[in-house]
Amino acid sequence: MHMQRDNEGIRLPKLLGLAVAGATLLAGMVVMPATQASAAEDYGFAAEDDFVPGDLDTTKVPQLTVTKYLSLNDGYAPTGSAKDAAQLNANHDLAPAKGIMFKVREVEPTEGKSLADIDANDASTYVDKNDTVYAGVTDGQGVINKWYSTKPDGTIDVDENGKPTTELSFPTGLNHYYVLSEDAANSPAFDTVNNPNHLDLRKYKTAVNSFFGLPYATNGSDDNQTRGFIYHLHLYPKNVSTESFAKTVQSVKGRDGTAKNQTTATAGDTITYKLSQKIYNEGGSAAKNDGKLDVSELQGKGADVRLADRMSSSLKGDPATVKAVIRDSDGNTAAALTSTDFASDTSTNENPARLNDPSQKMFAEAPSADVTYWVFNFFTADGVAKAKAVNTSVMELEVTYDALVTGNGDSTGTGGVVNDAASDFSDNKDSEGNSQDPVPSHTNVTNAVVAFGSVQGKNQNPKYTALPGTEYRLVKNADTADKYLASDGNYYGSKDNVPAGVQVYKATANSKGLVVFAALPIFETPSKAADKTVQETSWMLVETKTPKDWRSPGIPFGKITYGDVGLTEEAIVQKYGRNAILQPNYDDLNFGHFDAPVSEVPEDTKMMFNNVAVTKYLAHYKTTDGDSPLALPLTGGRGILLLLVVGALIMGGALYARNRRNNAARA
């Protein structure tokens, strides 16, 4: 399986485009109170904590698991119990981050200081106790549970296959204290050279360090057996976005309405999205032209905030599900907004204008007309009154809605089930009062795709340029080329009754010639197995619509196969991330005589998908081309004309010869 991460691209997601680590343990605290060691009021611990009451067991080897969360807001400080993971995971504004490196060093106080003086963010208060550096990189679930040795350059020591060579364990016994820090410079997620979808370090707060003991001592009591040691410490550091706007995935539901445990999407699923805009309440200290919208700056004329969402053909929003609220600093709903508080347009196909500069558009122009723009304009006078009544230093303006994942592919060609959102607001200006670009957000879910280019043939000048408008479908094999793949894993003809909620897949080349199938059912089986795994696929590709004057290949191409067969959805997300773009083995997709070699495709025609160059191009022949592999003379054009002319000449000659014979016989 060929995989690409889709964290940002040109529009970097505010939840998945976060840079350096977020808030961690309170600096200097070596022993946390039991109420912080667990969220449970009874001071209970999860089994994963490996908590043992009483005195230290010097035979037990301690462990450390770090789970990296991405967040819009401060708060949710990490704790010392795995039991708190359920609470954190319930907040869909928190998302795990893949490819972030953390390092752990054992430390001791600098000379003249004690443990109580150690401040994890003040390097003058501690020194390294030894040369050992523990390093790990978060997986697709944001987790590090294995630690490895590093090389002098700070990267993890790996073998020729890229596998870490030396796994490290933490020492047993008392008096082992550590500082945890995030290493952005060596994090694959921030690698601008090797990661085409790298995260943008400029947009997020820098992490603070953590200081803790391991094994981790609790300060409970012997009476209720809460005094003891945690031998498997779980920490939940997070990043915090400095951006004022973000779009997040709140849930993915299957066509049966059941919420999925993983953010994987198949056509027929429903995704709940949320747009979040920060509004500040700084009272008399609010400054104009600072790029921050304050409640004192709200005018109530419908031009305070403009939120816009661009959905490609892979998504179809449901206007009936639109809801808007204002939340306070604690995340509580402070005000529900109605149609009298804001205006919305959920039906336009026109790229909306910027709020502060109507001569410019909210988005770069899409390479297809098959996109929908949803636009929300805040506030009316009634809406301003509700916002000003929220007595909090910062509030969140939120808009949520559902979108159906369709079988129509990704018309924008940016990542499958993907869409772009943007925010413009009245104070989105620089210090000189000049309008700034809308704040972008880009979001995706893990989905299986096929991407290739549809181009003109080698006989054109220039050759192999884009051929938009070609339509394609997927079939089981060459014997059933008129039955098309659907989201339930079955195949349907044009006259078949497709079950309710089932989507039949198709993909149409956009104006750049790019063709993308999205949200394919690689996890699905016709029996809908509960524990879904990657299935064996051998789909074939057929062209079902061809522009006028161009010849359809008329044959199925094969095959479309994926790797990682047998892995569960959870394992796929852990391996590749929550926003992975799973692509097939393109070496198996053979276009034969219709293949356009990548090296011969003009540079200005070469296509990108998810910020990576497309490797397959399907070439077409004109109906007048005589060298087409399927250029039979009876298919039309000059071929049949030539036959008719030749046939007429032959018949005329035969009649002439017969008349000559008849005349000779009479003579």
UniProtKB/TrEMBL annotation:
Region (Disordered): 339-358, 408-443
InterPro entries: GramPos_pilinD1_N
Every Gram-positive pilin subunit D1 N-terminal domain range: 68-240
Transmembrane helix as UniProt keyword: yes
Residues annotated as transmembrane: 639-657
Keywords: Membrane, Transmembrane, Transmembrane helix
Name this protein carries in UniProt: LPXTG cell wall anchor domain-containing protein
Biased composition (Polar residues): 339-351, 433-443
